[in-house]
Amino acid sequence: MKLQTALDLLSTADALKLLIGVAPYVDIIEIGTPLIKIDGLSAVRNVKAAHPDKELFADLKTMDAGELEAKLAFEAGADSVGILGVANDATIAGAVKAARAFGRQVVVDLIGVPAPHRLARIREMAALGVNRVEVHAGLDEQAIPGYNVVDLLKTVEGAELPLAVAGGVNLSSIGNVKNAGASVAVVGSGIYGAPDPAAAARALKEAIG
Ligand SMILES: O=C([C@H](O)CO)[C@H](O)[C@H](O)COP(=O)(O)O
Fold first, then answer.
1. Complex prediction ipTM
2. Which of 43, 163, 55 is nearest to 103 (CA)?
3. pLDDT for the residue 175
């Protein structure tokens, strides 16, 4: 299982600073949606230039214009882009078309897809040529009392595509994510919000072996 650090930070400078200690322990660097909204695709360009050996995921959360948005991110250096699973199939197909043209990947984020519909939506994503799906409880959903990663994982048991898991994953829940057979554990606040982000990343990497 790969470890992905989600950089939901407010400047590229902060992201580059954090990565000095964190990058050695992670497989995938995610440029978070807030950072893309603040700094645009220059965040993708600058982080890729500093870490060319790492897979770079641009969390675009694209809802429309899939081919165009994916193409722009690939031109900036992204290896994979995040497209919303609630978008129209045509948007997802457009992103897949761009990914094939560049030899890159599309990750479909299932945020907002109701739990009972997730497995069927994953099957549709497989048919459209998507590379990976991400089951995702966003920051607002995580704040609802009673939320936990184990319940989130149950909603995608038997998924037919490689799975990324995001939603407050931390040292106490990353074992559940691995045992569920996930391909990627996405960790945002569990790394950037830790008192020592590099130590947190190292502990997470050691926990998954
Ligand atoms: O995608 C994310 C969220 O929607 C804000 O952009 C986060 O990167 C993702 O949830 C991972 O962060 P944590 O939940 O804090 O681990």
1. 0.98
2. 55
3. 98
